[in-house]
Amino acid sequence: MRGNAYTYFQPADLTEFPAEYAVTLQSKSLFVTYYQGGCSPSSAAYEKVIRLCAAFGARCYSWPGSFEEAEKRFADVSSLLADKEKTLRAYEQYFLSEISILLEPVDADCEGRRRRRPLIEAWRRFCVKEKAVYATLNFFEASDVTIRADCWFPAQDEAKLRVVLAEQSARSHASAFLLLHPPTSSPSPPTFFRLPPFLEPFQQLVDTYGVPRYKEANPAVFACVFFPFLFGVMYGDVGHGFLLVLIAAALFYVKANNRVLRMKGELIDMLLEGRHMILLLGLFATYAGVIYNDVLSLGIDLFGTRWQVSSPTFEEGEVAFPAASSASRPATFHEREGEKLEPMAEGFPYPVGFDPAWKGAVNELLMFNSFKMKFSVI
């Protein structure tokens, strides 16, 4: 900017603010610019300063004309800050007192038992109950003096429903009764399966693919067997399956000892509901791992291999290489890198599962994939 001008910068002091507020504030600087021409709008220097301040987002304040005016403005600002600080402290005290009231335990009725809970928790439960009541009432068709709702229920629960309606009518001094209508073809009745806890996770798995229609067979009865079996075929490993069995045992222990209240969360609830499925997955994975002779991806030689290294004789100067795999090769031996194996002349086959000699064989993958495919078909 041409002309005589003087600018002085002073960083804003944040130490006067409380520590909890100072960390959230941005560092700013105060500056004052002296130039020729004064604050007249016709001054070229004034216009340039205003444009620069607007471009950088700076806030402009009028400069006091005298020392007395500056002192008066400082006193007004200090008084305003003191009033706001007093208001803020008063609001904080009010806020803390309200929080202490809401967190103070009060007597609450929970399923016929008196318990002491924070007041805000009692309010929350009241709101949840009221919301549930009105959400249920929205399913009813209201008239002048009655409300009516159509619903499906299992036929074997009719007697229980009538007993509940009679008890509630006597308790609430209102008349409630059940009217039966003959079922029609449209709309179709909903699907309902009365399941034990064992089948619930398998039913949820089946429902992800589709819900059976009314009076159709429930595929979850079959899924509780073939799904863990196929899991074991794909992920057969004694170590892997044993870990799943341990996890299932821990979930059964938590459920049996009523420690569910201490462990909350959607993931914990899902694991507790699927503890039977996890147990079956572990058992079938362990069974398939025994068949594959696979423990943490390692073959275990428990009964001694039934294969031996062949010892062909070579003439001087010849080098032995593993033969390439071909359909014409005899199927009574398989190859490891750098050596050939052949079955022993005497002895019985490996008692349980695969012979450990298959681990590391050149055709190991082909053999195991073919076996798993046939195993899953069975």
TrEMBL record:
The chain crosses the membrane at residues 225-254, 275-292. GO terms for cellular component: proton-transporting V-type ATPase, V0 domain; vacuolar proton-transporting V-type ATPase complex. It is found in: Membrane. InterPro entries: V-ATPase_116kDa_su. It is a multi-pass membrane protein. GO terms for molecular function: ATPase binding; proton-transporting ATPase activity, rotational mechanism. The keyword Methyltransferase does not apply. Its main location: membrane. Keywords: Hydrogen ion transport, Ion transport, Membrane, Transmembrane, Transmembrane helix, Transport. Pfam families: V_ATPase_I (PF01496). GO terms for biological process: vacuolar acidification. Essential component of the vacuolar proton pump (V-ATPase), a multimeric enzyme that catalyzes the translocation of protons across the membranes. Required for assembly and activity of the V-ATPase. PANTHER family: V-TYPE PROTON ATPASE SUBUNIT A (PTHR11629:SF63), VACUOLAR PROTON ATPASES (PTHR11629). Belongs to the V-ATPase 116 kDa subunit family. This is V-type proton ATPase subunit a.
